[in-house]
Amino acid sequence: MEGMELVAFNIISNAGTAKSLVMEALYAAREGRYEEAEDKLKESRQYLTEGHKAHHQLIQEEASGNNFTFSLLIMHAEDQMMSVETINDLVKEMIRMYKDIHYLKGEISKNSVVK
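Structure tokens predicted for PTS system, cellobiose-specific IIA component:
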């Protein structure tokens, strides 16, 4: 495996790890473990950044005149990356909602709820 395939698998692998970490952040927040949730989100962003770097390589190659043939593998990699971006945004909002719920239940202090 080399070239475009390697880049695609790099994107897919990083996006998959990022997605798993984002979901772990949500599960931690549901249990009120907000520091752990934030750590998971931070770690997921690192993996997503690596996926974006690999994707950027492909864009630079094409911009340099090296056109690629259509690849279902690259299409899948881009889909995975975009899905993680969307899931990340939704999970951030859901964590805020969990904080509000836990505050209203008296389980956390007002200082823990950041708007």
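Residues 3-112 form a domain with the Methane Monooxygenase Hydroxylase; Chain G, domain 1 fold (CATH 1.20.58.80).
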